[in-house]
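quick q for whoever's on today - can somebody do inverse folding on this one?? i tried earlier but teh output was garbage lol. C-alpha cells:
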C-alpha cells in the first residue's frame, strides 16, 4: 500500500465523486446512466467555463464546428491549468459531423478502470473527460451532439463526438 500524498488528495476525491455519480446514475437508470451523466457533465463544464470567464477572464473562443469547439476547449483548458498540454489529446475530424477524440493522459482513468474491473464493457463507460468534451462542443458551438467511448486501455481512451 502506498502513502497518500497531499497533492494527490484532490484526485482521490475526484475519483470518489465520479464513482459515486456513476453508481447513483446506475441506481436510477440501470446499466444505462449515460443520459444522467451527460447532463451532469454539461452542468460541470458550463459552470467551469463560467467561473473561468467571470473570475479569471479566460474565455473559450467561439466556434461553429465540432472540431473547432474541441480545439477551443482544449486551448482554454491548457491556459486555465485543467489540462497539462495540447499533446494529451488527439482531435481528428472524421467528417463535418463526427470527430474522434483520443485522451492520452486522463486523470479520470481510475474510475473507468474501476468499472471495467467490476465487469462493465467499454461501451458502458460514460467517461467524464469525453463527456465534458461533448458538453463543451454544445456550449461553445451550439451543436447538439452525442458521444461514445470506443476504446479504453492503459495508454489512452478514445471515443467520438457526433452531431445529432
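ok took a stab at it. sequence:
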Amino acid at each position: 500500500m502506498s502513502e497518500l500524498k497531499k497533492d494527490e488528495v484532490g484526485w482521490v476525491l475526484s475519483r470518489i465523486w465520479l464513482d459515486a455519480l456513476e453508481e447513483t446514475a446506475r441506481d436510477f437508470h440501470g446499466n444505462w446512466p449515460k443520459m444522467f451523466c451527460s447532463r451532469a457533465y454539461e452542468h460541470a463544464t458550463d459552470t467551469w467555463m463560467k467561473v473561468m470567464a467571470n473570475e479569471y477572464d479566460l474565455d473559450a473562443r467561439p466556434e461553429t464546428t465540432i472540431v473547432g469547439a474541441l480545439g477551443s476547449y482544449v486551448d482554454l483548458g491548457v491556459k486555465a491549468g485543467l489540462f497539462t498540454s495540447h499533446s494529451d489529446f488527439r482531435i481528428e475530424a472524421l467528417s463535418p459531423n463526427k470527430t474522434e477524440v483520443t485522451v492520452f493522459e486522463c486523470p479520470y482513468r481510475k474510475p473507468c478502470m474501476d468499472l471495467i474491473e467490476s465487469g462493465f464493457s467499454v461501451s458502458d463507460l460514460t467517461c467524464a473527460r469525453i463527456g465534458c468534451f461533448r458538453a463543451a462542443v454544445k456550449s461553445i458551438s451550439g451543436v447538439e451532439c452525442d458521444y461514445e467511448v470506443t476504446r479504453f486501455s492503459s495508454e489512452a481512451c478514445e471515443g467520438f463526438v457526433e452531431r445529432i
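fwiw The mean pLDDT is 91. also DSSP finds five helices and four strands in the chain. so keep that in mind when u check it
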